[in-house]
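Slide 14.
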Amino acid sequence: MVNRKELDPESSPQAAYGAHVRRLREARGWNQEDLATRMGYSSQHISAVETGRKPPTLRFSRKADAVFGTVGGDDSLENKWREIRHGSLLEGFPEYVAHEGRAAEIRLYEVGIIPGLLQTPEYAAVLAAHAVKRGAITPEQADERVALVADRQAALVRAPLPLVFAALDESCLRRSIGDASVIDAQLARLVEFARQPNTMLQVVPFGMAQRPFNLPITVLTMPDRSLMSYAESSHRGHLERESTAVLPMLTAYHQLQAESPSQAASVAMIEQL
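Slide 15: predicted structure.
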């Protein structure tokens, strides 16, 4: 083939994805125009994905799976896309999300920003846009991060409902993320969260000097009552699966809740803001 660009599938998940699309296409005897017509994209778009010049999206992957007949199979392009998406996330976080979606109880302590499970789409979009400006992620990965927030929240609407406890440092409420309308909607979302029958929200005020945690932490109680914890630094996340190591964190979380203002007082603070 003239001007065919050879790819090294081992060079990156995006290159592996593009090579996989090309392999599926050529196995059916189609050229790029044939695939473009079937998917509703331009041939230039197909070429850019195959050669790694354009990152794939979830929409593209699902359309390709429908055309290739690979939906839910080992060759699923949606699965390949999710591997790429996880590449923009901290180490350990994708595995944590899978456990989070099955947990019976979730205990969150956050500093600086509203945790993902409580974010509005607009708040999540502003955070993702900031990451794009820093060059940390691409615009496509920003869209996928916002979609992941929605996916995580949707996974909690299940039977039986998980218990969700959120202790937010006051800095989460005071930090300006987006314009006034974004902050107002986000604060209203917190009040709505607090009113749910399976939730508890507490704000840890600046004046509370004695705290058991210096960094954000999440403690999960699984359906079999085993414990897991997840914590992040600026470079990586760590999922702790050994219950005996997590138990002291659970005890410390209970102490934090006991020392923090009540949910009623916390909601009053949020409504005043």
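Speaker note: The beta strands are 105-110, 163-169, 199-204, 217-221, 227-232, 237-240.
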